[in-house]
## 1
Amino acid sequence: MKMIIAYIQPERLNPVKQELFEQGVTKMSVTNALGCGQQGGYVESYRGAQIEVNLLKKVRLEIAVSAEFVEHAIDAIIGGARTGEIGDGKIFVIDLGDCIRIRTGERGHDAIG
Amino acid sequence: MLSYFNAQSLFAAVPEPVFDATFTVNNLWILLGALLVFAMHPGFAMLEAGLTRAKNTVNILCKNCAILAIGLLTYALIGFGLMYPGEGWLLPSWIGPFFQGIDPGMKGQTMAYGDYTYYSDFIFQAMFAATAATIVSGAVAERVKLSSFLIFSTVYVGFVYPLIGSWAWGGGWLKELGFYDFAGSTLVHSVGGWAALAAIILLGARKGKFAPDGKAQAIPGHNLPLAALGVFLLWFGWFGFNGASVLSANPAAVSLVFVTTCLAAAAGTVGAMATSWIIQKKPDVTMVLNGSLAGLVAITAGADAFTPSSSVIIGLLGGILVVLSVIAIEKCRLDDPVGAVSVHLVCGIWGTLAVGIFSTNPEHTVLAQLTGIGAVGVASFLSSFAIIYALKKTLGIRVSEKEELQGLDIGEHGMEAYSGFQIFSNQ
């Protein structure tokens, strides 16, 4: 079992969800995040003073999948989020120790869905 | 000594205005009317800001501030003289004189046709001009380029609005035909509404508004309390918009207008709420708010010529119409973020037509009203279409896709409306 964490541009969320759905991945968590990487920030101005904004708005996806789905999920995320420009985002894959469904108490493969 | 006597005789040649109690009261009401119509501007600003996304709020506010200023200044320079030529028509009944300014000198203190001063007349009418322009700003919100929009507004409010207005209120050919528009359902609201329609046709929808199959996607407003405040302020201002359009403080007329205006607004609210409840299964507060405005716009053409009971009918139908037209406009793949076309154009036309049907004055005919609606429609739509098309081909009227996604606040102004808040949007 793996946990896929992806940081994408906020406006790519809908296309990514669509692609994941087509690959059979329907369970995920979405949070808003601020982040920076290679993408530069921008400058705002307010009454004569400049403000440098370099933490940009991102969307963080967390998807727990069993091993067979990992590549499908990654391909789906890339398909939905890639625009070819700097700032498309990053995907991390980490090992998942266990997964428990709260309602029934199922563990492991049964729980991951 | 000699110069003193000369000055005396000069002053003696000009008739002294008589400021008796009646004059003062009438004049005061006109000035209060100007104040109330001014209050419609924060109304528009809040309504538009509330119904659009947070990332574009600075842009909305800036457009509203600028339009008020542009409206007032162009009206002073060009509009007032063009709209009310008096004896100075260039092409009688059709085109008035340009660039008259507003300094009447000692002679023009009072108006020949009313108990108020020249300056009161100017400031009251100037506030109207600004409201016509601001109707367009809501329809083009969230994707129009600021500079192009300001140029369009200057030309449209500066020249087109007063020219069309002169045809009726200035004593032109529409007035001669018997066309009647008490406070501007056609001359203000539909003039703005036609321009809004032309603008959204040429501008295109916001990105993400329509799915590839044409189905409308919701782009919810970010602050409905502001939108509601806006509508209440507009209703508040309408007491002056209609009330002072009586052009005197005549107790009978003004009190009737207050009643018809309010009843229509109330009926519009109820009509829209009912329609929205039936069609959308649950009442949509933005539709209810649009309904109040619909009733107000509809009654504006004849608030002094309707009975209270017919006001209710007119407002009710306005409220029903506005909900249906919001849905219809989206079906045409046109994106109107605040319902400007539905409220101002559709209900402006309805209200003007209603004068021919419901007016207590037998001189008001459906034919004259239709003529006015048609003529103003053709003139406003064609001129606004031409101006915007010219801007589209030269400067461009739309921001880049990247800027639209980032938000016009950053793109056009380099600042945020809600600094310190993390506003997240996925559209």
## 2
Amino acid sequence: MPELRKDPVLGRWIIISKERQKRPTDFIIDEPKVLGGFCPLCAGNESSTPSEVLAFRSNPEAAANSSDWQVRVVPNKYPALIIEGELNKEGEGLYDRMNGIGAHEVIVETPGHEDLFWELPVDHVSLVFRSFRDRLKDLEQDSRFRYVMIFKNYGKAAGASLEHSHSQLIALPVLPRMIVSELEGAKSYYRYKDRCIFCDIIRQEIQQDVRVVCQNDLFITIAPFAPRTPFEMWVLPKEHASGFCSLDDQKLTSLSQLFSETLRRLNRCIPNVPYNFVLHTQPLRSGEIDYFHWHFEIVPKLTSIAGFEWGSGFYINPLPPEEAAQYLRESLDN
Amino acid sequence: MKKILLVDDDHAIQLLYQEEFQDEGYSVSSAFNGDEALKIFNADQPDLVILDIQMPGLNGIEVLRQMKMINSTVPIILSSAYHEYKQNLGAWASDEYVVKSSDLTELKNTVRRLLG
């Protein structure tokens, strides 16, 4: 019988459709197409991008925009939102609007065109996460922005327009609806129990040990109780922290180790699976929040969103997370 | 005389642009799809390319990446009726992105600027 499950933070319902249950080998993924031709993100082509706002180089004395970088952050050449200007908030009757002010940046994760994120050395992944943290800290100084969304699209089906490994950052003058709902859900739980719901989830998942994918001393990866898609995973710090900026370099290394392992497990289960990951962190300048807990959500693109999902907000998932976690746990054993 | 290669599968656009840019004193050659554009790009070595994105066969961004691989110094303007292709990072290989309009002022100014 199918099962309805409720996400404890958002109150979102999903359907685990056991009749349609699938194994990892049932998901057919096309070989990623590596297009030939000029790539504006490759090392040596820095003149095709706007000037960098951050870069890590083995030689810190090297000139900005030189080609010996390891990780490079550049403003989007054709941004969705514009950095210059004022918000000029106004109302038109009951409708609100403002100028499309924001920062839209691309984090180029590696100079090599065909490098895969989950195959990068841990030290290199750590630089990518360091760039997330440092850009968050910098953009927090701009009082026009309230939230910074950091995300990665891997594979065409997940929205990646270029195969060169990269992630993106968009600083917004408003809080995204998803984050508002997450904050409200977490706050409601905290009012009732005086505990962070994410800390409770981690505690229960470690205790039950059926949806834990992998963990180290500081971080844990779980298949959430009510996942939207097969193999959805959350990566969380075991110790309570509401903001990603709280991570020091040592913790970033530990996160990188677990995050890489998580993606390797996913790729071993379903080679070349397209996925998105999104960083969920606290709003800018909010200080430490007792009821919120930063985390990454990794969502493979294995099911389609159609009329029922759009209309209801429900998701239909053909793979229970307990089984997904088991496949993922066993994936690196062979 | 500076040479412009105009790549667009729409005959009406080709006629309009040819007339306007010839009046501006440029020599204009035309291609109606990506494969044809790459052949002319190799053979004629244009000084600038105006490149549509939505075309049958190779799309404009694939053509752009091939052209920049052949010669990265030739300025290429992506010209599309749609804003949303700006979100395709492959478009960064272009020198400019101009949204199509019946008013060619922006496109003409961009061509003048890029050709110095």
